[in-house]
Write a structure and sequence with these properties.
The structure is a single chain. The chain has a two-stranded antiparallel sheet with strand order 1-2. The protein has 144 residues and is mainly alpha-helical. Helix 1 crosses helix 4, helix 1 (3-13) packs parallel to helix 7 and helix 5 (55-68) crosses helix 6. The protein has one domain (3-142). It contains 7 helices and 2 strands. Strand 1 (110-112) and strand 2 (115-117) form a beta hairpin.
Length: 144
């Protein structure tokens, strides 16, 4: 899955297709993630639309969506530490996003021997991406 495809899936799952896509078929044919999501992605660097979606970028996108669109406040307790998730600080820009998404149970760690790892540079499959979106929507519904 690409970053652009993920942004479009996120927008559609949240019920937010632009009205022009519903009323003008030609607009839907030319839809791009940039056109659909500029209201909350402005100023963010999630990667180019055609880039492969990595776990760290997926966490960043989901966290920003929770904050900017859903108005969900960040957790201040129960966040994973370096002792729990050994690679959580591999990307210092992504670390706060990853910790929020892990703490809410939207994404999970991988167990490698005795270590738990986030593996932020691993590609996200379409199935996993859709599951993460589903979990994120549940967070909003449950108010957690």
């Amino acid at each position: 899955m690409t970053v652009g495809e993920f942004l479009l899936c996120l927008k559609e799952a949240a019920g937010g297709e632009p009205e022009s896509w519903k009323t003008k078929p030609e607009a839907a044919e030319n839809r791009t993630a940039k056109a659909a999501c500029t209201d909350w992605t402005a100023g963010e660097d999630f990667g180019a639309e055609g880039e492969v979606l990595l776990r760290k970028n997926c966490a960043r996108i989901l966290h920003r969506y929770l904050q900017k669109v859903m108005g969900v406040k960040d957790l201040t307790t129960g966040l994973p530490s370096y002792e729990e998730v050994r690679d959580i600080y591999d990307c210092r820009i992504c670390a706060p996003h990853v910790s929020q998404i892990l703490a809410r149970g939207i994404m999970e760690t991988e167990v490698r021997g005795s270590l738990q790892l986030f593996e932020g540079n691993r590609e996200v499959s379409r199935e996993d991406a859709l599951e993460y979106i589903h979990r994120m929507l549940q967070v909003q519904q449950e108010g957690r």
